[in-house]
Here is the input.
Amino acid sequence: MDSTAQRAPRPTGRTVAYDPSRPAPPLHVRAAAVLEAGWTGTSTVPSRGLYPHQWSWDSAFIAIGLRHVSPLRAQTELETLLAAQWGDGRIPHIVFNPSVPLDAYFPSPDFWRSSTAGRAAGAPRTVQTSGIVQPPVHALAAWLVHLADPGLSRARGFLTRAYPRLAAWHRYLLHRRDLGGGGLVSVVHPWEQGMDNSPCWDRPLSRVTPAPARSFRRADLDHGSPEDRPTDLDYGRYVRLAADYRDRGYADGSGDFTVEDPAFNALLIASEYALARIARELGAAAPARQNRAERLTDALVERLWEPSAGMFLCRDVRAGELIPERGVSGLVPLLLPDLPRDLTATLVRTVCGPHFGLGGTTRLVPSYDLLGDAFDPHRYWRGPAWFNTNWLLERGLRLHGERGRADALRRGILHTAGASDFAEYVDPYTGQACGATGFGWTAALTLDLLHDRPAWDKDGVTAIKGEVRG
Here is the structure.
């Protein structure tokens, strides 16, 4: 891939994603080449131009794919991220590469001022990071990376070194971020949840006074169409939230944006199951972690399940109410093994129904309700399909016995990833590429789906829990 992100052309209409006229190398070779192009020696950038540093949940997904190419590199990917952990346990959402110019990405290290503004929270002094977090996929990734080559993992002490850091990360989330008092973790910025400008955030964001446009310069517009990116108004609100959090010394609990998100909490639960397996591997007791995962599942259902929507919704903690918007985040709990059977069946119907259209109008699950007023098939998280959320849903469908639907989704992901040149995200109807191409987690999760499927089932969340279901 070229050293700058490729801008995907805007479609003139709904056309089928391109079919290369000349035979291309095998898909796994192309995917591995994307990861090789993004490798810095210690981690993998999501996109050389658009995202030139290390991102937290990107690295977790990338490690899951890298384990099939180089288990050592996959371990190194996670170790590099964990080395930037703060003293309070948080894993920052960006670890900055000091060799990248400050103006290559905004907000840059001089905005976050982690080593000074984050001093009370134990920010590292030797590396610059952001001060917010991203979804906790890391323990799940660490366990899957270990399974790729247990001998190498044990010889290097990979899990022995990772486990206390991962445990501290979960402790931070469970103790510092239960801002609603109901047992679930809250996010304090849309960037933390990872689905940056989802319509699910519009209502709580409306309380935030945006930073003046003249106070920042958006580097993302140098690499993508403005029609594909968040609006200037939304970006001004993101900047205001981040600056206020920084100016409070990254202390949790008093910001204008506090939301309990179903995907964030579902990934924490999946990673709690993974930590239980890691503990058993290391000869430690694990029941407390498994019990915690089950309690968190109960809290997720109690606080975020909305029967009339047929899915989980986000909760605006400040307003004390569910947000009436259907985003893909509310489908991700399908990943969990202990959901009540009636909820699982309802989620499957919702995924395949008119709001998300899987197997009917869409090849991949969109990021937002097809029937929602704010739906846009090209604007970032307001409608396009993303490969990481579809990968999670493929796992969830397979876990709960929906193998026909899981196989169809797997085929759709693989076809669309290859046809779109591993796009950052795609039009859910046509598969047309949007954002950057040669995107890290798209290539990595393609590799994971291309891997032997019986091993895929064995490595799933049921294996993390320690049981196997048919």
Observations:
- The longest strand covers residues 54-55.
- The radius of gyration is 20 Å.
